[in-house]
Amino acid sequence: MADSVATGLADENETENEDKEREKRLFRKTKEQAASDLTETLGFYERKAKYKERKSNVSDLSLVRFISAELTRGYFLEHNEAKYTERREKVYTCLRIPKELEKLMMFGFFLCLDVFLYVFTLLPLRVLLALVRLLTLPCCGLRASICPYCKKSSGSRILQPAQVCDVLKGVIMILCYFMMHYVDYSMMYHMIRGQSVIKLYIIYNMLEVADRLFSSFGQDILDALYWTATEPKERKRAHIGVIPHFFMAVLYVFMHAILIMVQATTLNVAFNSHNKSLLTIMMSNNFVEIKGSVFKKFEKNNLFQMSNSDIKERFTNYILLLIVCLRNMEQFSWNPDHLWVLFPDVCMVIASEIAVDVVKHAFITKFNDITADVYSEYRASLAFDLVSSRQKNAYTDYSDSVSRRMGFIPLPLALVLIRVVTSSVKIQGSLSIVCVVLFYLGMITLKVLNSIVLLGKSCKYVKEANMEEKLFQNPPSAAPSRASSRAHRTKHTREPAGDPEEEGLSASVTTQPSRSDECPAPQLPTSQSDQFLTTPDESEEKSLIQDDTELKHRAPNKDLLEIDRFTICGNRID
């Protein structure tokens, strides 16, 4: 009985356990089914399904499939149209640079040629006219109130300011020419030829740097001399005198002429070397210039300054090559066959110079996002200088404006060429004198024709650039001191100036400049920041402080016409 009861209890326990297991299995199934339903709604798959799918995807990959995908895949450039259009415009700009740059270089070359021929042709004639006027009008030096011959007052000038400047240029050229006779060209040539190639390469680089330094400071010396000699005498004396300035100018022209002669002699040694190694090294120096210029940041004004420097450098190199050819032809008794021996080397030097300029300007415009149309603006700015020098209110000679703009000073270079020509060409007999006179007349004809063509082209460029209204504006003037600025300010408040347009309507590019008594005396052009260099009055301190705070937050914006100095410090313009 007890056994039957025990077996019954055991069966009940087993059935209960089986029921519990069934319930657990059902609970697990329902839970898994609910989880599977939940993951499907959320976009997930089971682990086994993922594994199977990954296995099927791996089985689909193959080398052939990858290669076919690489060969057939595509893309659309029009999705980034602006980027590729910009790239194409940069390519077109680089292709336009050689043409636009050579237009500017050609125009600038003829400008330098016009200034250079002026020293040989018109400057001697102008000096003779000034001396004739000085000698034929002795009565003006008397103390009579009105001269009975020329009907001029005793206070009037015997010579005009332009004539005084011409006489000073002529006297400087004559003195320096006689001083150059003490320089032995043959001794200089053999001294340079005895040096090693590397030493000559260093010397040539030093000469290039010294030439730029001399050009930068030399025009300031000449301008100081011209202004000191022509400054109105009623003004208070603020200079050391005309004679010290004159001796400074003579010393500068003489030293610069010697430097150019050494530079020409070094180039002559390079041409006459047997293995042409020095000439190759000197030509490679031009390509080093690319490294020093291309990877710098350039603005439009800085590029304009570099373009002017390149024009001056190219013209100077042509004159140096002419001097080298003259010296070599003299050594070979003017044999024309030797000229063809020098011709390949001359062409190689010119070609390397042009190639370096094109590559340099092309990459500078590319890296700084400057368009090729900027060279037309540069050409118009140079043309404006030529046209403005012919105006009625001109305040400088054209040769001096080119010297300030490009750093090209023709006096030392012309002096070296005269020294080389007179030592190479012997004038004997009446026939040689007739040839010299005919050659001089030919140079005058070339100068006149070149000036006429340049003037016509310059007027065209100025009209295209819409710069005609600037021709009738007065030149920039600023006060050199506090007293003069105060007097200048009170004078303008009491006497208002007339309309410049009415005066400019009658102006012409062929009329002579005349001095107006109503206008104040011309003063040295300075920038707007120069007025803060003087000590302000107490009444002006507050206004100056306010203007100073405004200038700190205002970026300088210089016009191309205001750049009139040759700078070499990274072609920077302050």
TrEMBL record:
It is found in: Membrane. Residues 541-551 have a biased composition (Basic and acidic residues). Residues 1-26, 472-551 are annotated as: Disordered. Residues 475-484 have a biased composition (Low complexity). Keywords: Chondrogenesis, Membrane, Osteogenesis, Transmembrane, Transmembrane helix. One of its GO terms (cellular component) is endoplasmic reticulum membrane. Residues 524-536 have a biased composition (Polar residues). The chain crosses the membrane at residues 167-183, 246-271, 408-425, 431-455. Pfam families: DUF747. It is a multi-pass membrane protein. GO terms for biological process: cartilage development; ossification; positive regulation of cilium assembly. PANTHER family: TRANSMEMBRANE ANTERIOR POSTERIOR TRANSFORMATION PROTEIN 1 HOMOLOG. Belongs to the TAPT1 family. This is Transmembrane anterior posterior transformation protein 1 homolog isoform X1. It comes from Carassius auratus (Goldfish). The gene is LOC113108285.
